[in-house]
Design goal:
DNA-binding, 67% helix, elongated, 208 residues, homodimer, mainly alpha
DNA sequence: GTTCACGCCGAACGCTCGTTCGACACCCGG
DNA sequence: CCGGGTGTCGAACGAGCGTTCGGCGTGAAC
């Protein structure tokens, strides 16, 4: 149906506008009246497309996560070398993040705003996404020798490196996403100066 | 005055309770009535200690940042070796984070909730804290050879590794903060498997 | 014994919130 | 020409919000 198509396109535009406002002001600070103003629809008109403000946030998060998952699976498909698989994973994540900054900030920053069924469904995608990365890390260890640190720490730390960028990265600035992605990859795999950190250099840890 | 002391102690307790609730539910979802219930004071009684909800958040953030700054300066004072200075910086950050999880989550997650004078004052501390880390990284490069990546990327990426922990780390779990801190230090300096990432391993970056 | 600042409170104010409801144009199949 | 689904809207509802205000008890100061 052409109507169905037009309807979906309007919903997409609405979600995009909402993601922009949520990213700038935050989910709970943003009122439905703000969204109406920003998207050019009346307040009550919004409720023709979504059942509630919660569902609006859910749709943004769920669709973004689905997209980044699909994009990631395509990016690593057929790639055998574990290190290259990792590089593809990182690059896909940052590339998608940089080109969908609003949605990804909402996904990262407002992860605690959902509850119930909505939360479960997004968390299921999150778990799958995390599992893929952990499997890649296991493969990297198998081919490149024992890791220097616990795999769980490495996983969440890498996500921290990547997801934190909504706090400082400007996709329109002078720092290209290619350089960023390559830097994160190098940093994670080889470290800042490639230094094997001995015990002796950290003699008084947690002393202060 | 003893009264002044008692007053300050009550304010501290109030801020601590507020930080706990803000960390769990988020700043904007939390009502002053929630805080009154949680801290055992009446709704209007809160306003004897703080001028507004904004100021409450500001006091939590500003005091926490001041504490982590002071603690960091003490931790790196007198330490000459740049790599060890970095290790102390990281360890102090994570140690303070883990032992003040609520306050630090509020500081990290609700950084956009302030505005005006309040925001400026917290941001000033943030800039100073960042500058110290960047200076340490410059020293590390001077003594340990050229860095593998841009220093600004390295700085914000390291903050991402450290600040993201409020999303997954449980200080009461089986993962000690000593291990965490050492892992982040190793990961940042030497990488996951100590691999010098060549260009050839990432031939199709941003292709997918 | 009176005074007065301190610590705290119940009640209320004005406002904004998410959501609902009834209605009105429009267009397409009959 | 007509009936019904589609898309949109203004107006309103009840609830909850941050904040204020006047007052009350208490204990130290004089």
């Amino acid at each position: 149906m052409a109507q169905q198509l037009a309807h979906d396109e309007k919903l997409d535009a609405l979600l995009a506008a909402a993601a922009r406002v949520f990213a700038k002001r935050g989910y709970h600070e943003t009122s439905m009246r703000d969204l109406a103003r920003e998207s050019g629809v009346s307040l009550s008109g919004l409720y023709y497309y979504v059942k509630s403000k919660d569902e609006l946030l859910f749709l943004i998060q769920d669709r973004s996560f689905a997209a980044v998952l699909a994009s990631m699976e395509e990016a690593i498909a057929g790639v055998e070398n574990p290190v290259e698989r990792l590089a593809r994973f990182i690059d896909n994540h940052l590339d998608y993040f940089a080109s969908h900054m609003a949605e990804m900030k909402v996904l990262s920053h407002e992860s605690g705003a959902l509850s119930g069924q909505f939360l479960s469904q997004v968390n299921a995608k999150k778990r799958e996404y995390t599992r893929v990365l952990m499997d890649i890390l296991a493969d990297v260890e198998r081919t490149n020798g024992a890791a220097h640190v616990n795999r769980r720490i490495a996983t969440y730390t890498l996500f921290g490196m990547m997801n934190w960028i909504y706090n400082w990265y400007d996709p329109l600035g002078d720092l290209s996403v290619e350089v960023l992605s390559q830097s994160v990859c190098r940093l994670f795999l080889g470290g800042y100066v490639g230094l094997p950190v001995s015990e002796s250099v950290m003699p008084h840890m947690t002393a202060g």
